[in-house]
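Quick one, tokens below:
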């Protein structure tokens, strides 16, 4: 009887501790291939950045940035795509660009990171090495699948298949500028995913400006580089 009471008491304490500590679903947001040991340094190409950006709450951004609602989506996403490529070039001095047309017409595929986390994107065909804009064959290609920019976003709501159909509450205030980024480092020689990740990058909102969004994009480039290094065990 005393043993049962002890087990019951221990279980009760576990429940209380879980409530206090905020026990919840644990996600794995990165995945490395066993062969991924050396991160890219110079021999890297990038593809997809020009089509990856999506702006959430475009009407809110249009008002805050004093840009017409008709052009806000195109203006912000185009500038962000160019800036991301420029920032990656600062980190990878010989970075090449692979035309997004190389992936046009290919089916969208799913890549599993976790039991509930899947990346969706287009990948080069098996047996085909993709050339950059100069006709050269890079060893590795950074495929930027999607960059979602908004306020107070949570990557779980976009990449956890059990939550993606849930509608979030309508927000009247915004605390953080958020970017949710999904990407894959592709082995162009062996046609396989070396590393994939979904990042969530945030900056506090003080007075929103285009400069704040540009700083967010710089943070994205920094986070990508950190993850590519960490994924190789560095």
């Amino acid at each position: 009887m005393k043993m049962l009471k002890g087990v019951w008491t221990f279980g009760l304490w576990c429940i209380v501790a879980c409530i206090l500590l905020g026990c919840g679903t644990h996600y794995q947001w990165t995945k490395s291939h066993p062969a991924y040991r050396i991160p890219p340094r110079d021999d890297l190409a990038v593809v997809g950045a020009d089509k990856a950006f999506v702006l959430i709450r475009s009407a809110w951004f249009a008002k805050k940035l004093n840009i017409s609602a008709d052009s806000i989506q195109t203006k912000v996403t185009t500038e962000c795509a160019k800036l991301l490529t420029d920032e990656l070039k600062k980190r990878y001095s010989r970075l090449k660009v692979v035309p997004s047309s190389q992936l046009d017409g290919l089916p969208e595929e799913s890549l599993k990171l976790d039991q509930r986390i899947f990346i969706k994107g287009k990948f080069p065909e098996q047996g085909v090495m993709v050339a950059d804009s100069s006709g050269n064959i890079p060893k590795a290609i950074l495929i930027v699948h999607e960059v979602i920019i908004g306020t107070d976003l949570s990557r779980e709501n976009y990449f956890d298949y059990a939550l993606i159909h849930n509608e979030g509450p309508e927000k009247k205030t915004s605390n953080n500028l958020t970017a949710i980024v999904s990407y894959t480092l592709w082995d162009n020689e062996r046609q396989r995913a070396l590393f994939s990740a979904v990042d969530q990058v945030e900056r506090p909102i003080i007075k929103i400006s285009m400069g704040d969004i540009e700083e967010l994009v710089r943070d994205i480039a920094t986070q990508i580089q950190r993850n590519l290094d960490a994924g190789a065990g560095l």
